[in-house]
Amino acid sequence: MEKTWLNNIMRYVLRKRMRRIRYFSAHPHEVQAGLLSQFVNTARSTEWGKTYDFKNIRTPRDFARHIPIQDYESLKPYIGRMMHGERDVLWAGQVKWFSKSSGTTNDKSKFIPVTIQNLKTCHLKGGWDTSALIYKNRPETSGFSGKMLLMGGSTEPFQGCPTTQFGDVSAIMLKHLPAVGNYIFAPNLDIAVLPNTEDKIERMAHALIKEDMRSIGGVPTWTVVLLRRILEITGKQNILEVFPNLETYIHGGVSFTPYRETFRELIPKKDFVYWEIYNASEGFFATQNELGADDMLLLLQNGVYFEFMPESEWQSPKPLAIPLSEVEVGKHYAPIITTNAGLWRYAPGDTVQFTSINPYKIKISGRTKQFVNAFGEEVMVSNTDKALAETCELVGAQVTDYTVAPIYFEGKSKGGHEWLIEFEREPPDLETFNNLLDNNLQRINSDYEAKRFKGLAMERLRLRLVPRGTFHNWLKAKGKYGGQHKVPRLSNSRQYVEDILNFVGGRIT
């Protein structure tokens, strides 16, 4: 039954929340300085605070001077002790929840601390801010009149300490939702956090077809799997025949560009809302703030203090970062974050490009370790996503997933790029597609164009088609099936490409 009363209440609550969003947008530097001061004061008596002399940190400049930029390896010993129950290490008190990061397909898992403060004032708060902005842009939205789907992962106890739990941050969020969540989200928690992804998708599909779904949130790859299973069960042609009131899809984790056409076929509705968010195990960093926008508003009052590492520093052994006040539109940066979960000047590995500084808005451009620059071409994920999407649109093709790696010089041959692509709908002519894709990438990236000039330094990119299901099955074989696990788009080595080719029995020709 439609819950109009709840939707009206939430519309009022979210309208009040917009005041806070307007405030931090208008006073970004004051808000950020205030957050940093809170964090330093809270952690002053921790081991980390004593090591880095927090009692003498007064300004953001002091903070940057006292603490070098960190990566996971430098924080890993501290996090390990926290997982075993040790108190006052990186953050005050005992931290009982840890998010298992799925940002790469490496065998090593990363465990990111999630304090209750961080959960409430960052992860959950980012979700409410996203809803507030959607309702501002679409006042007639009725998301809270029905059900919302959040595709989560699972959690499990840590064997080294009975009070420690770890798992996908989405599952941790689901387990800490306020009571109103029971009225809002579907399916029930028992199904939503099942550890076996195949079983979960099957049970979710059967449970959801009984609900009045208004909104869906999740990583595109796994959302498509779920929606297709729902169509198989119901025998319907598209998702609107199952959920006629569906209004919004909230997505993040990977670029939506390669999936856009697939979703248009699954949900054939002209005014359907696609809303991008930038959330990760480390925090909820940004959300789209206008309909149809291709950038996101940086969330500056949500438990994260931001600095930014310029592109020239990415490969430096002792990299430097600049404050938010010094970033420039159009340039690529790696975010450096400090959070109320005990991450201090931490580099998550993403790269962003600023599209505005009043207010501060960004696009995700890739990963510091997901790029191809074997020949000085400096190709980033945003380049390949755009080139592939434009090429598919021109020829009517549709891609499920892809990955790119360099082909190195060998003998007298020139270098180039190799693309492994899994098509949902193959192009009519692969040679034409190959040429168009290469030309589009040259148009988008001037460094690639320069290296491709008359084929002097680089040959035309090479396409290799892999069978349907290859990427899902490869992730599954790696123990990375489900949740927020993703195929690496770009790599400056051939590790992933060679592994996938061996997995499907292919060889380089």
Structural key phrases:
3 domains; globular; 509 residues; GMP Synthetase, Chain A, domain 3; alpha/beta; 12-stranded mixed β-sheet; 17 helices
Structure, explained:
The model is unreliable at 102-108 (pLDDT under 50). The protein has 3 domains: 11-93 and 306-366, no CATH class; 118-287, Rossmann fold; 371-503, ANL, C-terminal domain (GMP Synthetase, Chain A, domain 3). A hairpin with an 8-residue loop joins strand 1 and strand 2 (110-114). The strands form 4 sheets. The protein has a 12-stranded mixed sheet. A 4-stranded mixed sheet has the order 2-1-5-4. Strands 19-20-21 form a 3-stranded mixed sheet, with helices on both faces. Helix 1 (4-26) packs across helix 6 (116-137). It is globular and about 65 Å long. With 509 residues, it is α/β, with parallel strands linked by helices. It has 17 helices and 21 strands. The longest helix has 23 residues, at 4-26.
Furnish the topology, listing elements before pairings.
Blueprint lengths: L3 H23 L1 H15 L4 H5 L8 H7 L5 H12 L13 E5 L8 E5 L1 H22 L9 E4 L4 E3 L7 E3 L1 H7 L5 H4 E2 L2 H4 L4 H12 L4 E5 L2 H15 L13 E4 L8 H7 L6 E8 L2 E5 L8 E3 L5 E7 L11 E2 L8 E8 L10 E8 L2 E8 L3 E2 L6 E2 H15 L2 E10 L8 E10 L4 H15 L1 H7 L9 E4 L4 H8 L17 H9 L6
Parallel strand pairs: 1-5, 3-6, 3-7, 7-8, 8-9, 20-21
Antiparallel strand pairs: 1-2, 4-5, 9-10, 10-11, 11-16, 12-13, 12-14, 14-15, 15-16, 17-18, 19-20
Helix pairs in contact: 1-2, 1-6, 10-11, 13-14, 14-15
